[in-house]
Amino acid sequence: MGLFILAETSAGYALLKATDKKLLKRDDLSEVTQTAERTLGLMQLKKFEKFESAASALEEVAGLVDGKVTPMLSRLLDSIKDEKKASLAVADPKLGALYEVGWRTSLV
Fold it and tell me: Which of 6, 44, 48, 77 is the least crowded, having the fewest Cβ atoms under 10 Å away?
């Protein structure tokens, strides 16, 4: 059971696990995430999928822009498929809609 956050970086995809299950419901969320140090205390890295090259990074970004779950992203998300009562936070509504179709994890 837990809250996971999907983050796309220039180096690859990061799947973070919140240390506080009710992180997104906090009234002071914008305050506690103003610095990297404070944000780091709220999350732990669960898994990181590194882009193999600049070309693969561009392909991944193009897939996200087109609203597609790429094989690389799918592999990363498979790592939380069996988590009980897991929630996944994503920033892109298109990606969120695609994710809900294929996985049992709830989306926030």
Answer: 44
Q: What's the predicted TM-score (pTM) here? A: 0.75
What burial letters (b/e) apply to 2-19, b meaning 16+ CB within 10 Å?
bbbbbebeeebbbbbbbe
Number of domains in the chain: 1
Structural domain span for residue 88: 2-107
Tens of each residue's pLDDT in the chain, 108 residues: 688 888 888 899 999 888 877 777 778 877 877 787 877 788 889 999 999 999 999 999 898 888 788 899 888 888 887 777 778 877 777 666 655 544 555 555
CA distance 101 to 66: 16
Apex CA 77: angle with CA 76 and CA 81, to 5°? 130
